Amino acid sequence: MRDGEAGTPLVFQGQVTDATGQALPGAVLEMWQADDDGLYAQFAPGIPEWNLRGGIVTDDEGRFAVTTIQPAPYQIPTDGSCGRLIAAAGWHAWRPAHLHLKVSAPGHQTLTTQLYFKDGAYLEADVASAAL
Ligand SMILES: [Fe+2]
């Protein structure tokens, strides 16, 4: 992240395990997220290409910790066909704040998912219907 990245500091930590609960040392966790304005590097102009994007390898106990900021909710594009669908359906364009994760380990199926924040705005009404 940028020096002095705006936003509420967040330490995201955990342990990667397999489906039986066995720790996975050496698992690769790729993570990307919006910034405090709800903007993503590589989509919004003026943000360094790899800002708030990166990868980390879990330790001998499958554990990891990432120091970042809490992402903000954001609106999906409201122009083009997406915008016409939203307007026709009468939806709003908001997505709840989330972290994108892709977790991989040799011999295991790769998991790509999103994690949300308890009591976050738009959880009950995610335009992408991905939160619940
Ligand atoms: Fe996202």
Structure write-up:
This is Intradiol ring-cleavage dioxygenases domain-containing protein. Keywords: Dioxygenase, Oxidoreductase. InterPro entries: Intradiol_dOase_C, Intradiol_dOase_core, Intradiol_RC_Dioxygenase. Residues 12-40 form the Intradiol ring-cleavage dioxygenases domain. Pfam families: Dioxygenase_C. The chain is mainly β and 132 residues long. The chain has a domain at 9-73 and 95-114: Sandwich (Protocatechuate 3,4-Dioxygenase, subunit A). Helix content is 8%, strand content 32%. The chain contains 1 helix and 8 strands; from the N terminus they run βββββαβββ. The strands form 3 sheets. It has a 4-stranded antiparallel sheet, with no helix packed on it. A two-stranded antiparallel ribbon has the order 1-4. A two-stranded antiparallel ribbon has the order 5-6. Strand 7 (98-104) and strand 8 (111-116) form a beta hairpin. The longest helix has 10 residues, at 80-89. The site of fe (ii) ion (FE2) has 2 residues, from strand 7.
Global outline: globular
The CATH topology of the domain at 9-73 and 95-114, please? Protocatechuate 3,4-Dioxygenase, subunit A
Strand order of the largest sheet: 3-2-7-8
Mean pLDDT: 96
CATH superfamily of the domain at 9-73 and 95-114: Aromatic compound dioxygenase
Record field, number of beta strands: 8
Q: What is the annotated CATH architecture of the domain at 9-73 and 95-114?
A: Sandwich
What distance lies between the first and last C-alpha atoms, to the nearest angstrom? 29 Å
The number of helical segments is 1
Q: What's the gyration radius in Å? A: 16 Å
